[in-house]
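Methods, example record. To illustrate the input and output format used throughout this study, we show the complete record for PH domain-containing protein. The sequence lines were provided to the predictor; the line carrying structure tokens was produced by it.
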Amino acid sequence: MTARSAARRHRDEVGEVLAVHADRPGPFVVVGVVAVWLLFSGLTLLNPAESPVLMLAPTAVFAVLCALVLVYISGERLIVCERGLVLGSFAPGLRPSVIRYEQIVPGSLVPVTGARRYAAETGTGGYPQSTVRRSAWTRQGVHFVGPSPKEARRHRALLAPLQDPPPRSIDGRWVWFAGTGATPPAQVTALIARAAGAAGAVELARATAAAPERALTGRPADASAHLPGLR
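The corresponding predicted structure is encoded as:
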């Protein structure tokens, strides 16, 4: 199932899909995974088994494992819909979060570049978080303050709550971040502003349309200026 078709499950809540942005790993990551497969496959050939089947079996297993790794690390999406956002991993067995525009704090949604410095600037340490959808290869994205991760889930989760961070906004809400892949974040926020305005979230639409792009520096002192609402 594609991310677009999976997002249509929430059509009654957030409307039709307007755009899908994939935050996939770059070629260096893919080459690295392939190199690991070649390395382990080569090690198995140093001590070949008696039969060709037993000799090739480990290579096939490593290929499947590496393919699964690529599938899961390539599953991040930010989907802009008519009345809200669907974001998170669409890899098999995982469910995204759903956030309506009225749940986003007006003035907090901004386009961000320099996302590789996000952990240093926010002091989050780079640990996986359910509300910060950022990987090592994420270069740009959108930041906003919104609902708790529990409110944004549309399913019962057993392990996902372990990655839920505490509220980090100045008003006790949750800070969110989602990568936009190759699409300039200002282009994404412009679309969100138009969709929010059409959906009746006028204050959010106006503030988002006027929000300039923020380039992260990695300095904690700049965090509150670059990421509105962060305490």
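Annotations derived from this record:
The mean pLDDT is 93.
The chain has nine helices and nine strands.
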